Amino acid sequence: MLPTPWRRRRGLAELAKMRAAVRPVYDKFSAAYDPAIVTLFKAELERVSKL
Fold first, then answer.
1. Which among 3, 19, 32, 39 is least buried, having the fewest CB atoms inside 10 angstroms?
2. 42/36 Cα distance (integer angstroms)
């Protein structure tokens, strides 16, 4: 079953809520690592999310 536009919008809203909830944790741990590693990690997450 393909997602309807309503379900897609709802899913995007849920994703935005989850990202906002984990943002403080992400920022805290990102500051502890080398910025080059954080950049590579973000690029890999972006690549995988497009699969």
1. 32
2. 10
3-state helix, strand, coil in the chain (%, to 5): 85, 0, 15
Residue 36: CB atoms within 10 A of its CB come to: 8
Tell me the C-alpha distance between 15 and 9, whole Å: 10
Cβ(3)–Cβ(11) below 8 Å: yes
CA 28, 34, 37, 41: dihedral to nearest 10 degrees? 10
Per-residue model confidence as pLDDT tens digits over 1-51: 556 666 677 788 888 899 899 999 989 998 999 999 999 998 998 899 887
